[in-house]
Amino acid sequence: MAFRSRPSHLPLENDSSSRFLPSMVALMVALLTFSIVGLAVLHDTVGRWATQIDGSLTIQVPPTGFSQLEPEERDAALEDRVQTIIAAVSGQPGVARIAELSPDKMVELLEPWLGPNEMISDLPIPRIIEITPSTGFDYNVLEATVSKTAPEAVLDDHRIWLERISDVAVSVEMALLALIGVLFAATTLSVFFATRSGLSIHKSIIELLHLIGAPDSYIASQFARHTMRLAFLGSLIGIGIALPVSILIGYLGLRAGWQIPTALHLPLFFVLVLFVPVTISAVAWLTAKRTVLQVLRRML
C-alpha cells in the first residue's frame, strides 16, 4: 500500500476490503465532486439570469391593424406608435431609461431562425421597447399608461419566467443536495459492510488477540486506521478523476462562449473540494471504529 501506518497484528492488507473499498470510495467521491461543481454552476447561472432579467422590462408593439399596408407604410405607422408610447412612458417617475430596440438589432436576432434580411423585412414583426426601472418605479402606473396609449401593446416584466426558472432551479438544487447526502450515506454503508466483512474474515485472529489481553479499543483502532487509509486513497483517486474532467468541460464551455461561474473562481471553492478526501476519511474512520466496537460486544 502507498499509505503505511504502525505495524498491525491483523493482516488487514490482504482481505477483500483492500480492493473493494478504494474503488467504491473513488466512484462516490467523483460523483460527489461532479454534484458540487454542478450545484455551483447552476446556482451562479440562475443568479446571473435573475440579475439580468430583473432589472429590465420590455414592451412589445405588434403591427396590429397595419397588415394590409405596404412594408414601408407599415414600418412608418409602427414607428409612430412606438414613439407615442415612448413619449407617454418617459415622463413617468422611476423610468431610468427607455429606448426602442433598433430594427437592425431585431433582424440580427431573428436572422438565424427566419433566414436572410430580405425575408424578415416582409414579415409583420413587432417592435420592442426596453425599459430600465429605478427608484420610485410603479409597475401598475406603467401598465395603465401603456394600456391607455396603445391597448394592443404587451408589457412584459419577465417576472413569470423568472419565477418559473427560479422554481425549477431550486428544485434541481434540492435534488443535487439530496444526491450529495445519498452519496455520503452510500459511502458510509460501504465502509460499514467492508468492516463487517473484515471482522468475519479475521474472526479467529480477533479471538486470539482477546485471549492474550488485547482490548476492543485496540482492535477497533486497527480497523479504523486501515479503513481511513483506504478511504483516503479512494478519495484521492476520485478527485483525480473528477477535477480534470470538470476542468475539461469548463474549457470546452469557454470555447463555446459560456461564462465560468464566479463561485468556481474562489479559492475557497477549491479548498472545499479538496476537503472532501479529509471528510470522507474522517467519516470512514469513525464508521469503522463504531462498527467494530458494536460487533465485538456481540461477538465476544
Automatic annotation (TrEMBL):
It is a multi-pass membrane protein. Residues 179-290 form the ABC3 transporter permease C-terminal domain. Its main location: membrane. It comes from the Bacteria. InterPro entries: ABC3_permease_C (IPR003838), FtsX (IPR004513). It is found in: Cell membrane. Keywords: Cell cycle, Cell division, Cell membrane, Membrane, Transmembrane, Transmembrane helix. GO terms for biological process: cell division. Pfam families: FtsX. The chain crosses the membrane at residues 20-42, 174-194, 230-254, 266-288. One of its GO terms (cellular component) is cell division site. This is Cell division protein. It comes from Thalassospira mesophila. The lineage of its organism: Bacteria, Pseudomonadati, Pseudomonadota, Alphaproteobacteria, Rhodospirillales.
